[in-house]
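#help-structures

NK: newbie question. if I give both the sequence and a SMILES, will the prediction place the ligand too? trying with flavin-adenine dinucleotide
OV: yes, paste both and it writes out the complex. here, I ran yours:
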Amino acid sequence: MSFDASYNEKELNAVGTRPVRPDGVDKVTGRARYGADYNMPGQLVARVLRSPHAHARILRIDTSQAEALKGVKAVVTAADLPDLTDGDASLFAILDNCMARTKALYDGHAVAAVAAIDVHVARKALKLIEVDYEVLPHVVDVDLAMAPDAPVLDETIITKGVTPAPDAPSNVFAHSEFGHGDVAAGFAKADEIVERTFKTEQTHQGYIEPHACVASCNSDGSAEMWVCTQGPFVYRQVCADLLGLEVSKLKVTSSEIGGGFGGKTHVWAEPVALALSRKAGRPVKLVMSRNEVFRASGPTSATSIDVKIGATKDGTITAAEATLRYTSGPYPDTWAETGAMTAFACYDLENVKTVGIEVLVNRPKVAAYRAPSAPMAAFAVESAIDSLAHKIGIDAVDFRIKNAAREGTRSSYGPVYGPIGIGPTLEAAKAHAHMSAPLGKNQGRGMACGFWFNFGGQTCTDLNISADGTVTLSVGTVDVGGSRASLSMIAAEELGIAYEDVKAGVADTASLGYNDMTDGSRGTFSSSMATISAARNAIAVMKQRAALMWDIPVEDIEWKDGQAHAVGASHDNLAPLSVKDIAAKAGNTGGPIAGHSELVADGAGVSFGTHICDVEVDPETGATRVIRYTVIQDAGKAVHPAYVEGQYQGGAAQGIGWALNEEYIYGEDGRLQNAGFLDYRIPVCSDLPMIDTQILEIPNPNHPYGVRGVGETSIVPPLAAVANAVSDAVGVRMTHVPISPPRILAALKAQR
Amino acid sequence: MRYERPETLEDAVGLLSATPERSHILAGGTDLLVRMKNDDFDADLVVDIKRIAGMGEIARTDAGFVIGAAVPCAKLAEDAALVAAWPGVVEAANLIGSTQIQSRCTMTGNLCNAGPAADSVPALVAVDARVKIVGPEGNRIIPARDVPVGPGQTSLAPGEIVAAIVLPEPAPQTGSAYLRFIPRTEMDIAVVGTAVVLTRDADGTVASARVALGAVGPRVIVPDDAAQMLVGTTLDDDTLARFEAACSDAATPIDDKRGTVAFRKEVAGVLARRAAKIAYDRAGETQ
Ligand SMILES: Cc1cc2nc3c(=O)[nH]c(=O)nc-3n(C[C@H](O)[C@H](O)[C@H](O)COP(=O)(O)OP(=O)(O)OC[C@H]3O[C@@H](n4cnc5c(N)ncnc54)[C@H](O)[C@@H]3O)c2cc1C
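OV: that's the protein plus ligand as structure tokens.
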């Protein structure tokens, strides 16, 4: 059935309210089942042996003693995961990252794994595995990795995207370039120019739940996996590809998820668990420790970014340019390219150019982290914008308003914008009471903008009407932020029934068609679109059933307020039929009633936000406290405003942690020094003020209710907002994130 | 692994002496249980001392405050006399972890864990606390300062148990204070910790002072020359500036994941100065 996804302004009843979430009771009573809370009969415990070296050739692995240990049921190495990737470089990178093949490429890289009857035996077995390494020189810093004398991680890499192509291998995988106009001419017209280099350190998503799965391979070629993931269908595809399984024979069920933020869109140890199970012939449970989570999963890029922006005295930006160097871990990827696309996306620029440079280093493979690559670019650009506003003596908000992108602007990365929210969020910031509140001694204020693309993608849902008229909704996007509530609200809205009468659940891969994963802020955007479509299809079926029950033509039936109404002079005396009435008779009118939907949710609608931050800095110790914080962001339409606010606050909290304290710290030996929450400092509750939020609703023209994704944009401005606030408080421009106390004191000292 | 909960110190010593290797004493367990989760932790015996009579009590004797080895840090704050006598020790102990941690963790565990950044240890050293040790070779009393000998290392012999920490009665007009620097607001480990104890004369000048610096060396540092600068003064700005510089100089930190050498030295001075002010003001408030 054809489905029109365009925005249609109408009064909404369920959407926009704040009901209690269906998964809440389970979560607060401890009944919710997360990755490690699932068990199978005969299950074994897996443990992974990891490289202690940042860079080393694996000369020999001897697993014989471990295999001989009583209670050990399987030991696997790369030899048990043969290369089936058929020239697909990104799939090969995943395979090699799961289990090192010829070289260990970072501290924590898996080299072998065991499955044993219990954890004690498994631990003992790990110690019996002998690995001979030839330790190689390593490099972890993004700038040092680009130096001519840097140890080269992969001798086959010749930089792409530069002409002429270099003749020697290096750690630079690729250059990418975006922009339009003539930046040289633009800078020539500028009255003032700011040019600076910024650096950001590598951070981890910091999800509280470590990666965990239970994998079970059967002798008939079928397999099952229970796993904590943001995308069961994607995990199924990748695992099937790597293990040579038939996709339909691998059933993946997603657990409740204790945070992912992008880090659970990539497979890590899941293929290893499947390989162990296949070898042992028994189910295998694999749960990472926190140390493993830090060393071997997740982190975002470390970056080094040059920015140059010029403007005339009246505050018009004449040219903007940035070169963005991003680490990707030891494998090629496109993180710098994404940063280069987002860097200037907030502004309407005549002359703009960005270059992204992908750099390989001996650190874990970089993973998506909430608006991946955008926060670092925004940090550099928004810091420079702030400096430039000071330099030409114009208010930082007015400067941004003057140059903000609007409908019809050609974005710095190519497309022309439709209706967008950057201008309105800036106007709202200007008008916000926070902006004019007085500041005390040692306090400072900063603000910054952020952009994220958002994504739609392949989606399907099933909506089944039960005999009692209640509704079950099966969706394929994992609920990471309350989407079961939001999608139930959407189904209730369309059908015209109560929210309580809809029960939404996340289906496993055997029960529903393919869905892209919950990433790109797509969960509510795309699954709500599919839910609306499925509900409308179910309504069409119910109208047919009512026609049968009444024995009138279906054209004479209208669906209103959750009921079928007969219209037309000959039968408008018929009492309306409710969902319940129709469902009760389903057995006699054609069987079960359902609505299905399979679609590609196009037109996700780009998203913008503006943040305001106040800090107080102790000038003698560099201790920084965030004392007030405001998030203003366009949601298109806030389906469940409390969860939209939660996304705004969560992104801000993570961004504040990144801005002030979070960083991967490597020793001289290339080993990670702080693989735990004691020394990898995410903010605790008392570190943060209440984060105020303001939701703007500029409808997305490509969604029936105007919804845009809201999950990621909120982490884009905080690095810059905090940096601008600290710089304001201490009077020195802070250019290196995290802006930790030692960096603040050092900057103050350098200025004295 | 065996878990034992003896009811007497003699039994505890006996158990530990019989298993000199790979045996551990368990007080609050907030360090030990965390270590036990590591893949490379092995133990044959864990002896829980919380059942032993008197271990959970604070007694005020002629020797001063005798704090049993299993007294949780939260209990220290409930003892009004102790809080009045040694606020610097109580505030240090009550910075450890969180409410949940404090209802379990002990100062003895903090001391015997021998972590260079332990919060209560500089405070104990500044008040010149003693520890009562029982062991297979008999009992002994040593300064708390001499228990940790290096990171993770103590001077305790196999089979020896700290039975209590003893804080002396403070002289009249004595004040104490502890300040630490952490990048966050709580649930963090000290990057610098400073404890100051000082006693005032009737005219308000400092009669004696003791300073202890934590997390800026493998063991607590006691910069006596810096402390001496305070004696005979009323903590005028000049004195405090010299004192601050001397404390910074005395600190011997390393560059690590928690801070740089320059940062730690500088902050050690800043916090020592601030702690001295607090201790001085507190000394003025006591009789
Ligand atoms: C979340 C968290 C936060 C923390 N925050 C802080 C903090 O802010 N500041 C800080 O300093 N520490 C902190 N710690 C560490 C820990 O809580 C403290 O060191 C605590 O004081 C240890 O006391 P305990 O009684 O729990 O020690 P236990 O774990 O029981 O023992 C510690 C060590 O001392 C030995 N030991 C215990 N009792 C005796 C005895 N009677 N005789 C001889 N040896 C003994 C044990 O064998 C063990 O080696 C934190 C720990 C956690 C888990």
